[in-house]
Task: structure prediction
Amino acid sequence: MEENDIMIERKEKILGFLEHPEYMGMKRKEMMQVLEIPKEDASLLEDIIQQLQREGKLVETKKGKLMSAKSLNMFSGSFISHSKGFGFVSVEEGDDIFIPADSVNGAMHRDKVLCRIIHPASNGKRAEGAVIKVLERGLQQIIGTFERVKDFGFVLPDDKKIAQDIFISRENAKGAVTGHKVVVEIIRYGEDRRNPEGKIIEILGHINDPGVDILSVIRQHNLPVEFPKEVYDQIESIGMEISPEDRKGRVDLTNTKMVTIDGEDAKDLDDAVSLEILPNGNYYLGVHIADVSHYVKEHSPMDKEALERGTSVYLVDRVIPMLPHKLSNGICSLNPNVDRLALSCMMEIDRKGNVVNHSIMKSVIHSDRRMTYTAVREILEDKTPSLLEEYKDFVEMFQNMNELRIILGERRKKRGSVNFDLPECKIILDEEGKPLDIKPYERSIATNMIEEFMLICNETVAEDFFWQDAPFLYRVHEVPDEEKMEKLEQFIRSFGYRFKGNNNEIHPKAIQQVLSQVEGTEEERVITRIVLRSMKQARYMAENLGHFGLAAKYYCHFTSPIRRYPDLEIHRMIKLILDGQMTEKKHKQMIKNMPEIAKRCSLRERVAEEAERDTDTLKKVQFMQDKIGEVYDGIISGVTNWGIYVELPNTVEGMISLSGLEDDYYIFDEQNMQVSGKHTARSYRLGDHVRVQVAKVSLELKTIDFVFAEDEE
Result:
């Protein structure tokens, strides 16, 4: 046994002793006697005690007694701050613990803290606690906007979860002026209600300089932009054409008619599709995915960097790719009229949408056309003569694909799969990065077709390897919490809807039926959003817990290895099995590695989502800068005890401050998701339609303030 394993074993033994129901608290000497630890091992015991204290699992009382944190109703976790000063402690097991502003005790966003439960959870309210101790600081550097005050200054953090501004003395200001975006190193954390103190280590540029806003988001989320030298060195050795050697052991599908269908601006084409009608009338669907793992070998510099990144990040004006462009837009991209290596999933699908046969193979493919969603939609819906002529050899295949799309969609609907069609937006920028327009994303039968084909492929692959008991990464979406479902049920009832079926457990089908009922209604957006908020987040796992939202027993991500690491890892595993190289040793090693890879990829996905959301918010705020005084119709998208959030049809969200409403004193009613006037009958509820006027826009705070338009009042 290795030294590290021995240490872990000893630590677990001592923790087990501390957590024993009959343990009543001992000092070090007593513990050494009871556990028969020799004097020469006293320093080893001290090391273990220190480690357990740092981890928040052990607490030393004022009298020197060693107690387990659990026995004192204390828990360690990550502190999630809120701009209003309060926060939550996210613990490994169980729900978050609410920390009021006066109990934060100097903790900052992302710190690892030890907290004590003051009021246990009851009546649907979460437990309330107080931070006892900061175990480990989470943020050493902060990105923000500098503001000079006399001969010192403050940095307003870009991350609004950081509740306090950072004090900067004159000698630590590095010559920054008001409006500079800066990187600050924390030199003193705020205790006793004082602001944290920092030192400016880098000036990124002025807030109004083109590109500085996005650069600030990239730095805030610590997104890696450049690839390390060894990755570029590795690319040099990769051929940009397929060699005869590469073709060995692969099925030749170069004569199969196939196309890629993507957005106009897509450059990394990782999926191609083919479709034939078999003599028995069934569909023979081929989903062909770029064989990225052929070029990105396990444990190579490129693989290590790809795992580090976990995913490509799609910011409003750029993509930060998981793999270098030379690969993602080059040899790995399924460009038309060139041979490419792929993993193909060939599925025979009957007229009811059931996959009756399938095979997964290593292949060589040749995409015939690079189609756009717009062109495919026009061929099928508008029957544009010039396009029908240009793609005459493919029109029949597209019509058959559309038939299959409808069948697969119906099958999923019947099963209870939930479609969340929240209005996403596309922000149009000029060359300087200034937002010109905000448009809803194009959703059409063409985007839906590719969606359906990828879904059925991902399900088929996940089910196949589940029954092979292979080491795997599943895309898991767990059943929502009962408590959240009860609240959701209450909320939708106030709109006159209800979930059908068993009260104890809501089936996705019941949710789907309500979403179908609200389709096209005024409250569709708000109900869809609240349903989404009530759900758990999908994540990657090494064990198969099913996908609630898709009502699928088996699901994975197989179709995008250029931009997602889990897909790449699954490809590797599949090829080992196809090539007969999955030895017992390799199987064991992969089983051991998968949970860690799953955790890493889920974490990187969250970071990417946050960065994408932040850049969108930034550009939306910029877009509204010159709209002060303008009046819009909107829908109430959120209510809190400090304000009413209103979303405009273009997805821009702003807030009406409760303290600014002068016609009455408004009280927040969490249960009914509304605010009501104390003296008048006036109330504002989630989902209500309102007219608002833009009152103030702050680039520094990334906020838009609305007031009710006069005709609303």
